[in-house]
Amino acid sequence: MTPAKKTMTLNLTDAEMTVLEQLAAEKDITKTALLRQALRLYQLLDSRTKAGEKLFFEDEKSKEKKEVVVL
């Protein structure tokens, strides 16, 4: 059974819309699919940081790590 869907209006700046369109084109997915992925990713990050975990980016060559702070 497919979950019920709701519609919303999202107002973006020109710059935000450009980023959304570019990322969707690069990933070959719709803008809606991209926003759904972004929401799932944010939900994952939020739950993991609430559980006391940290998120890092690591430079592959130098092995330098930088923490990502999610607000």
Q: How far is it from the N-terminal to the C-terminal residue, by CA?
A: 35 Å
Question: What's the helical proportion of residues?
Answer: 40-55%
Structural class, from helix and strand content?
Answer: mainly alpha
For the largest beta-sheet, the strand count, sense and barrel status come to: 2 strands, antiparallel
Strand order of the largest sheet: 1-2
Q: What portion of the residues fall into strands of 2 or more residues? A: 5-15%
State the shape: extended
**Rg:** 16 Å
Mean of pLDDT: 95
Q: Secondary-structure element sequence?
A: HHEE
Output the number of helix runs.
2
By DSSP, the count of extended strands is 2
Provide the number of structural domains: 1
Q: Report the uncertain regions.
A: none
What does this structure look like?
There is one protein chain. With 71 residues, the chain is mainly alpha-helical. The chain has one domain (14-68). 48% of the residues lie in helices and 11% in strands. It contains two helices and two strands. The chain has helices at residues 14-27, 31-50; strands at 55-58, 65-68. A two-stranded antiparallel ribbon has the order 1-2. Strand 1 and strand 2 (65-68) form a beta hairpin. Helix 1 packs across helix 2. It is extended, with a radius of gyration of 16 Å. The termini are far apart.
Short description:
By secondary structure, the chain is mostly helical. It has helices at 14-27, 31-50; strands at residues 55-58, 65-68. It has one domain.
